[in-house]
Amino acid sequence: MAQTIPFRIGANAICTDGACGQVTRVIVNPAAREVTHLVVDPKHRHGPGRLVPVDLVDTTTDQIRLRCTLTEFETLRPAQETEVVRDLDPTGHGHPDYVPDLARLLKARGRRPEAPQEVTVDFVPFGEVDIRRSLTVCATDGEIGQVQGLVVEPGGHHVTHVLLQEGHMGGRREVAIPIGAVTKIGTLIIHLSLTKHQVKDLPPVDIDHLAG
């Protein structure tokens, strides 16, 4: 896989003037099968992660190098957003599971059931999906492993391979699935046209040294 670039989930990310965090998600346009952004979170979760346009990714080996300073990195769009939702309506109007004594119970516990609640969620651009390490890869005959990252062409950022950790504890290995064998990239599962046996026949790869 010469002349390709690995985007490994968990890789360290470095700006031109210092470390900025780790790659926790890779954002993909599933129709074009093209990487559009990387999500870089601070290592110790001080502050929000940032949505890094893939055009800012300079080179990658065992690290992700970004063509921006730490100050410029901080001005990028946050990778999480906070939404305000309302708790259970204490009147029960329009709520099929309303319990008459629930409002009094919440009040006794010091909560206002009608108070707005803030929920933080991961941001994904419209029409795109995020690839994270917990994403399951399924062969035609069942689950085969979990995603470790993606390999892309250096020019157009088109995905060439899906990096997969296959097997169980004590027998795990990493393989690269050709993008042509991927039938669907979903929000929870990546589907393959290969069987488990065909995946097992693929040669193992050293994800840390895929760059051509």
List the helices and strands and how they pair.
Layout: E1 5-8, E2 12-15, E3 18-29, E4 34-41, E5 50-53, E6 57-60, E7 63-66, H1 70-74, E8 80-86, H2 102-108, E9 116-122, E10 129-131, E11 136-139, E12 142-152, E13 159-166, E14 173-178, E15 182-185, E16 189-192, H3 196-200
Parallel strand pairs: 2-7, 11-16
Antiparallel strand pairs: 1-12, 2-3, 3-4, 3-10, 4-5, 6-7, 8-9, 11-12, 12-13, 13-14, 15-16
Give a quick summary of the entry.
The protein has 212 residues and is mainly β.
Task: Give a written overview of the molecule.
- The chain has 212 residues and is mainly β.
- The protein has three domains: 5-80, SH3 type barrels; 81-122, no CATH class; 130-209, SH3 type barrels.
- The protein is built from three helices and 16 strands.
- Strands 1, 11, 12, 13, 14, 15 and 16 form a seven-stranded mixed β-sheet that branches.
- Strand 11 and strand 12 form a beta hairpin.
- The radius of gyration is 21 Å and the shape is globular.
CATH topology of the largest domain: SH3 type barrels
- The total domain count is 3
- Cα radius of gyration in angstroms: 21 Å
CATH architecture assignment name of the largest domain: Roll
CATH superfamily of the largest domain: PRC-barrel domain
Total beta strand runs: 16
CATH class wording of the largest domain: Mainly Beta
Bin the strand percentage. Answer: 35-45%
